[in-house]
Amino acid sequence: MAVRSTPPHVLIVNPWIHDFAAYDFWAQPLGILMLAAVLRRCGITVSYVNCLDRFHPRARPLSPNLRFGRGPYLKTPIPKPGGLEDVLRRFSRYGIPPDWFYDDLCRLTPPDLILVSSMMTYWWTGVRETIGMLKEVFPTIPVVLGGVYATLCPDHAREKSGADRVLAGPGGAHILNLAGELTGCTPVSLQEQSGFDPADMNTWPYPALELQHRIPHVPLLTSLGCPFSCPYCASGVLSPKRMRRSPDIVVQEIRYWYERHGVTDYTLYDDAFLVEAVDHAVPILEKIIRMHLPVRFHTPNALHIRKITPKTARLLKEAGFVTLRLGLETAGSEDGKRWDHKVTLEEFSRVAAFLLEAGFTRRQVGAYLLAGLPGQSFSSVASSIHSVKACGIRPIPAYYSPIPHTALWKEAVASSRYPLESDPIFTNNAVFPCQKEPFSWEVVTRIKVLCA
């Protein structure tokens, strides 16, 4: 390919979700928005179309009661995927209507390259539909798929997604070479312009959130990777290297988004924020407190319970954290020994007391409890729920989704009524895939009642 003389145009796209249920709990495609920022730093023109856009200009005004940047997606019922006939739930496309997406694409200057993100593996049909429309509007433009689905199920994605290329693993290591190859830019020149080193988080630009119609919250990534190896989690596959950002740079980013864009809600995307807390989390929290900004913080990714001390509990409260999620996973005697080795119920009870003494309320603090694990009994789930409530903390059910490449995958395959290895669609946590009996609303209702 000849080296071009004019800056290329890259389109990034966040695809639709196809699922039985979906809600925007502080979800943003941070990875692809970060890559967009890297490309823009190199002088490349970047456009962004978000199929999940709750703030689309054609959408109805949002309710003023939406809290902290969360909210429901638009949705349209669509046919249920084959093989899931035993699930008596409505299946939907979550996001903007297809005609809105089509019109948005047609208004764009034709791009030279299209990058598509992906999240849950069982949302792959939404990815396929998105890429199908991109191919309809821009039939000659290369489409590259990256993200979680592309990394965990690369062979399936190459066969089924419709993308011209599937990029498995962290995209930062490849984005500049990829842009050079597919658009005619010179990769060496791009690297020099960007100042970006994928192995050094302190060189990463702020994500290109301003490409959105609105910034409801800022996703913060202060560290990458996790030192634990939980058998149900794919963090080690998705982020194999542990890295941290400088506390000063983290606090500078918070100040930037508050002062430039008036954003008051910040969401930690770290898998292990409190690990190595003395050198990382504690300085960040102390610096946030000294800024005296009217901002709030949320941790939808669970905090490690064992790392919470009276001091860190106090700092979290003083820094403005209003949504805390703790990674308990199980607290019942039957399954606690099998699944979770990070914390005991006694340790959890002490940490719950630390947080309540620091001023957090039951509404603000929730503990994730896994439900639907292979061989897990309802009585064990119920026991975990009762144990958490006894500590004054809110139990939050986290329904298990089997993930390829994790230690629990083989057991999940053996316990499922579906052929999990044949199609990621069957790993959807909404259908309780790791049980032989069909989906039952009764089980979901009983869990909800116990957690109330």
Write the SSE topology.
Elements: E1 9-14, E2 17-19, H1 30-41, E3 45-50, E4 75-77, E5 92-94, H2 98-106, E6 113-116, H3 124-137, E7 143-145, H4 148-152, H5 154-160, E8 165-166, H6 175-183, H7 187-194, E9 218-220, E10 223-224, H8 235-238, E11 243-244, H9 247-261, E12 265-268, H10 281-291, E13 296-298, H11 310-319, E14 321-329, H12 333-339, H13 345-357, E15 365-371, H14 378-390, E16 394-399, H15 409-415, H16 441-451
Parallel strand pairs: 1-3, 1-6, 6-7, 7-8, 9-12, 12-13, 13-14, 14-15, 15-16
Antiparallel strand pairs: 2-5, 4-5, 10-11
Largest sheet: 6 strands, parallel
**CATH-defined topology of the largest domain:** TIM Barrel
On the 0 to 100 scale, the average pLDDT is 92
Q: Specify the oligomeric state.
A: single chain
Give the CATH level 1 class of the largest domain.
Answer: Alpha Beta
* Coarse structural class: alpha/beta
Record the strand order, biggest sheet: 9-12-13-14-15-16
Radius of gyration from CA coordinates:
22 Å
Instruction: Tell me the fraction of residues in β-strands, as a range.
Output: 5-15%
How many β-strand runs? 16
Q: For the terminal residues, how far apart are their CA atoms?
A: 61 Å
Q: In total, how many domains does the architecture comprise? A: 2
Architecture of the largest domain, CATH level 2?
Alpha-Beta Barrel
Name of the CATH superfamily of the largest domain: Aldolase class I
Uncertain segments: none
Percent of residues in helices: 25-40%
Q: Please count the helical segments.
A: 16
Global morphology: globular
